[in-house]
Amino acid sequence: MGVLLCYPKVNPPTEVVHQALAARDELLAFLLSFADVHRTATTADDMEQRRLQMEQTAAERTEPQPQASDASSSGV
Fold first, then answer.
1. What is the pTM of this model?
2. What is the C-alpha to C-alpha distance for residues 9 and 24, in angstroms, rounded to an integer?
3. pLDDT digits (tens, 9 = 90+) for 29-71
4. C-alpha angle 64/68/73, rounded to 5°?
5. What span, in angstroms and rounded, lies between the C-alpha atoms of 57 and 23?
6. CB 20 within 8 A of CB 1
């Protein structure tokens, strides 16, 4: 069917078009069910990831930031 898309003036038999559409619908149904399962399975991980990122951001804010004058006064 992918090759047929390169030739817009070709008229494939109706049977071929119906089979291609049925295969596409079956593939889409499979992908949508996979996406739903994946979304459900990773919801808790997303919350955990957000918590870890907040902890890391908070730790970075409390660390002293090096001053620009400290690097220039080292004599390097």
1. 0.43
2. 21
3. 999 999 888 877 766 567 788 888 888 888 888 876 666 665 5
4. 110
5. 47
6. yes
